[in-house]
Specification:
Elements: E1 3-9, E2 14-21, H1 25-33, H2 35-39, E3 49-54, E4 61-67, E5 73-84, E6 88-95, E7 109-119, E8 122-131, H3 134-142, H4 145-153, H5 156-161
């Protein structure tokens, strides 16, 4: 499994996931740079994502929704704050109210840094989400963020091997 370690720190308000993929850095980067590939791994199995907008550039916006097995849609967005491909990118990740991707003020927003380094033809990834306060981090932990993120990231190896 690609995910090697997961930690959360309520004092620092962070959720950190480490993973290692059996692919070079450029191949892992391509997963995030291509919305059709990203749709195949962003979300736990059974909750496929659809990226309606995908602009992986500084100031860009990525709007997407996940669809539950029952057909319910969960809307979210990324506001890209920095890009240094293929070494990584930063973005704010938030929940949206509906298909207009209006931010949901009742849900947490996290600042994220995804970084990738190559080692012996493999890629090591570090995913760090930082929340405004302890309550926001605890809310996403209670929603299953660790389990869902781990399941989603673990799908990347199969995609990059194909």
């Amino acid at each position: 499994m690609p995910v090697t370690h997961v930690t959360h720190d309520l004092d620092a308000r962070t959720l950190t996931i480490h993973a290692e993929f059996a692919a070079p850095i450029e191949r892992v980067w391509a997963v995030y740079a291509d919305p059709r590939q990203l749709e195949r791994v962003w979300g736990p199995p059974g909750y496929p994502s659809t990226f309606v907008d995908h602009d992986l550039s500084e100031g860009g916006r990525m709007n997407y929704y996940m669809t539950s097995p029952e057909g319910e849609r969960f809307y979210a967005y990324w506001t890209v704050t920095g890009v240094d491909g293929p070494a990584g990118f930063t973005f704010d990740d938030g929940f949206a109210l509906d298909e207009d991707f209006t931010p949901n003020p009742d849900m947490p927003v996290s600042s994220n840094a995804f970084s990738f380094t190559e080692a012996d033809g493999r890629t090591r990834a570090t995913y760090v989400g930082t929340y405004a306060d302890t309550e926001s981090l605890q809310k996403v932990l209670d929603m299953g963020a660790v389990e869902g993120s781990t399941q989603a990231i673990n799908q990347i190896d199969d995609l990059v091997a194909a």
